[in-house]
């Protein structure tokens, strides 16, 4: 039973955390101001690596925002009770992460003052224009979906809204994958495997974020998650992690099959320096192998282990995206495939990239925006999962 003193301490801690989130968000805005004033020359990005650390944060937030809705879809579309109780929180997290990710993208790409132009003048031959429609559509649908869950009069429309969100999130993540799949000039990209790979990755990353947030909310409210529910959800996380690792392995093995991709794969998998290290140690070991051990090893799989596994899955996601986005650009561009061409400007050289403090500030600013939206919303409205006595579906 919480005492008045403990409640006051929690209240103070809440405002301290909120203030810290605000400071980080403001630091992100300061970084944007500096890059607007001095140009992207003060970032680590250059003519070869045009997508840097901010894009790693943005893509993670957008892909995880789609994946976390998987929790809601299992409840609303497939009728699983324990997931349905978590659909409001999953929807809130989706909106929060989408807000953070899109803010980073909008502020990093330059001229944020012209976002209205980009939102109202569509070049439908560009995949980037498709994604403007997909992101705004996702926002609208998730808000309607939340409305059907939190307003009793709208409950009859909940299943239809849940189905629409379920379909749209697949389309959205496919669109994110297509951004890279249509970039045939880069050897890291230009693969039809990328859209399904991003969809599977979103399952694991979204569920891992949900586990982390749910564990914090339960601990904050001095509640304990039903062990049976924890068992089911951690098993699902384990399946998603295995599926993600499988898709990444298929992507690299498919590349290895083609002779013209061999040099690129050799660069990423064996002699790419920081990229190779991040792939094997950051993604494979810490992002997959250790989480699977924490989930399935005998004697483990309890609350703290699942929390640690989820955080490692998130860490692995950042490692994979760094290798995929930045490593893919650092590898020399083959400008005229099938032809011999030479110049005196960096032919065959691995591009260098040193992320600047401004890029990190902008990326963490996006995380802070998602944190603030989640923290305030959970405080003001009731997003706590309302668990009933567990009954097998």
Automatic annotation (TrEMBL):
It comes from Ferriphaselus amnicola. It is a multi-pass membrane protein. This is Polysulphide reductase, NrfD. Its main location: membrane. GO terms for cellular component: plasma membrane. Belongs to the NrfD family. The chain crosses the membrane at residues 12-32, 52-77, 89-107, 127-148, 160-185, 197-220, 236-254, 274-297, 309-331, 360-381. The lineage of its organism: Bacteria, Pseudomonadati, Pseudomonadota, Betaproteobacteria, Nitrosomonadales. InterPro entries: Electron_transfer_protein, NrfD-like. It is found in: Cell membrane. Keywords: Cell membrane, Membrane, Transmembrane, Transmembrane helix. The keyword Cell membrane applies.
């Amino acid at each position: 039973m919480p005492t008045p003193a403990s409640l006051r301490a929690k209240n103070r801690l809440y405002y301290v955390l909120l203030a810290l989130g605000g400071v980080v968000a403001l630091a992100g805005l300061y970084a944007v101001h500096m890059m607007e004033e001095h140009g992207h020359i003060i970032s680590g990005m250059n003519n070869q690596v045009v997508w840097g650390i901010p894009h790693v944060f943005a893509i993670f937030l957008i892909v995880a925002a789609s994946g976390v809705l998987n929790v809601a879809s299992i409840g609303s579309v497939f009728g699983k009770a324990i997931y349905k109780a978590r659909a409001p929180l999953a929807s809130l997290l989706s909106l929060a992460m989408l807000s953070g990710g899109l803010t980073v993208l909008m502020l990093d790409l330059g001229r944020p003052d012209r976002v209205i132009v980009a939102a109202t003048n569509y070049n439908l031959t560009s995949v980037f224009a498709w994604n403007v429609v997909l992101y705004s559509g996702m926002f609208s649908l998730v808000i309607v979906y939340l409305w059907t869950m939190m307003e009793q009069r709208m409950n009859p429309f909940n299943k239809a809204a849940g189905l629409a969100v379920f379909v749209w999130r697949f389309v959205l993540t496919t669109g994110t994958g297509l951004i890279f799949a249509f970039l045939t000039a880069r050897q890291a990209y230009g693969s039809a495997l990328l859209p399904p790979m991003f969809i599977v990755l979103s399952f694991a990353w979204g569920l891992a974020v949900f586990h982390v947030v749910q564990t914090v909310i339960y601990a904050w409210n001095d509640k304990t998650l039903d062990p049976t529910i924890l068992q089911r959800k951690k098993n699902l996380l384990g399946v998603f992690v295995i599926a993600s690792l499988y898709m990444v392995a298929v992507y690299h093995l498919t590349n290895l099959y083609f002779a013209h991709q061999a040099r690129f794969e050799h660069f990423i998998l064996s002699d790419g320096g920081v990229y190779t290290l991040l792939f094997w140690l950051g993604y494979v070991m810490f992002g997959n192998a250790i989480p699977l051990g924490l989930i399935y090893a005998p004697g483990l799989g309890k609350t703290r282990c699942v929390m640690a596994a989820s955080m490692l899955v998130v860490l692995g996601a950042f490692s994979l995206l760094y290798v995929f986005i930045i490593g893919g650009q650092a590898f020399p561009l083959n400008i005229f495939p099938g032809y011999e061409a030479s110049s005196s400007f960096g032919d065959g050289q691995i591009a260098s990239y040193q992320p600047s403090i401004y890029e990190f500030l902008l990326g963490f600013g996006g995380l802070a925006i998602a944190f603030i939206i989640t923290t305030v919303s959970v405080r003001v409205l009731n997003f706590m999962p309302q668990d009933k006595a567990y009954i097998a579906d």
